[in-house]
Design goal:
CBS-domain, two-stranded antiparallel sheet, 6 helices, alpha+beta
Length: 145
């Protein structure tokens, strides 16, 4: 299964992005309001600068205490964010998420942001794939008697 298959099943046009100067409290409110775990940080021209997620905000809170409220997205974002493409295989993306310890990946097609996937999206697709494989095997075993 490819990342494109996952994107077809979700509202991938709804990628939430913020500018680097966005205040952290506003980003936190956006995460809550949109019920998402991360936003892509990008320039006004569209170039991706990084990703800012719930974990980044919690780490900032632990380090900066109340000072985190005065920070901007650029100060907490992960500028070394991993990305993937629609053509990547889900198993390869799972490996990337595991080794890089990230829960969200921006999906880029020719350098253009076309979606974002979460570890939940990936797990859901793998479970569906396994259930389909089990059903096929069960049908085969029944057919053989």
């Amino acid at each position: 299964m490819r990342i494109a298959d996952i994107l077809k099943q979700k509202d991938h046009d709804r990628v939430v992005t913020v500018l680097p100067a966005e205040p952290v409290p506003k980003v936190a409110a956006l995460l809550m309001d949109q019920q998402i775990g991360a936003v892509v940080v990008r320039e006004a021209a569209g170039r991706i600068l990084g990703i800012l997620g719930e974990r980044d905000i919690v780490r900032g809170l632990a380090k900066e205490r109340a000072g985190v409220l005065a920070l901007e997205a650029r100060q907490l974002m992960n500028a070394d964010a991993a990305t993937c493409t629609p053509e990547d295989q889900v198993r390869d993306v799972m490996r990337t998420m595991t080794t890089r310890r990230c829960r969200h990946l921006p999906v880029l097609d020719g350098g253009k942001l076309v979606g974002i996937i979460s570890i939940g999206d990936v797990l859901k697709s793998r479970l569906a794939e396994q259930q389909q494989e089990e059903a096929v095997l069960l049908d085969l075993s029944r057919a053989r008697g």
